[in-house]
Amino acid sequence: MLLIGLPGIALLILFHYVPLLGNVIAFKDYAPYLGITEAPWVGLDNFRVVVDGDPDFVNALVNTLVISCVQLVLVFPVPIALALLLNSLLSERLKRVAQSILYLPHFMSWVIVVAIFQHMLGNAGLYNTWARAHDLPLLTIIGNPDLFIPLITSQVIWKDAGWSTIIFLAAMSRVDTQLYESVAVDGGGRWRQLWHVTLPAIRPVIVLLLILRLGDVLSVGFEQIFLQQGPVGLDASEVLDTYVYNRGIVGGNWGVAAAVGLVKGLIGTILVLGANKVAHLFGERGVYSKW
User: Fold this and answer.
1) Which residue range or ranges hold the ABC transmembrane type-1 domain (predicted)?
2) Tally of CA atoms within 13 A in the half-sphere of 4 that contains its CB
3) In the prediction, which pLDDT does 148 show?
4) Residues whose CB is less than 8 angstroms from the CB of residue 42 and which lie 6 or more positions away in sequence, other chains included
């Protein structure tokens, strides 16, 4: 078993842990033509955008937090609700068909997903073309800064909610059917079975995924947002991931971009450890057991 796991461990170390050494450029005035070793040390100067509150950084941070909070409230519960609905279906054939339809968008790239939404809801999209032909009001969704957050939230739900139900369905499949029968014998209907059997059974999984989501709260999807920044503008769409790209790769401020990425990773780690500690206080195992 250990030999089988060695290739995976080697890949993990090579592509995830070794690159962490590159974070040293956060403390250097790095330039590609100099290399990491030749770049001069600048200490904590690259972190001034964080400490001094650079307007572009603050805008990216605020947008990131708003989008993360909205998606945490609106996106996270959707897979749970879908899994409960799928689990309640009595016909196995209907359940498999519904699962296949819900899983399909996950395998599409963000380029395709964004293109579909643009072709459906854009100024020259299907709806607006049909609305013009029938003298109906047009929808200004694509490129509207005020509707950018609802737009990307709906895209995330459409693309990934179905795929995320797999974990919850797997947890539900482990529930002893005799528990449902016991509730039914006591006069409990489907809602009682759901409340007293299903939800307690998947609660550890919900807590675990919520903790992991909190650790990723400052990452809201680079590709999805980057593909739609042009029509909307940076004021409404700039997030930390795109800020790192625009400031580092496009702007050439590699050290500053690395510093922001390092701070983002540090905050994510703190959030995971803190959320896990809270889970222990409520009697849940969380990501790891209590020390």
Assistant:
1) 61-275
2) 1
3) 92
4) 27, 28, 29, 255
Contacts (Cβ under 8 Å, ≥6 apart) of 43: 27
**CA gap 151, 71 in Å, rounded:** 11
The pLDDT averaged over each successive group of 10 residues in the chain (291 residues) is: 91 91 88 83 87 87 91 90 84 85 91 92 86 87 89 93 88 81 78 82 86 82 89 88 87 87 86 81 72 57
3-state class (DSSP) for residue 41: strand
Instruction: Estimate the share of the chain in helix, then strand, then coil, as percent rounded to the nearest 5.
Output: 75, 0, 25
Pairwise CA distance, residues 259 & 117, whole Å = 34
Distances (CA, A) of 277 to 273, 281, 282, 283, 286: 6, 7, 9, 10, 8
pLDDT value for 14: 94
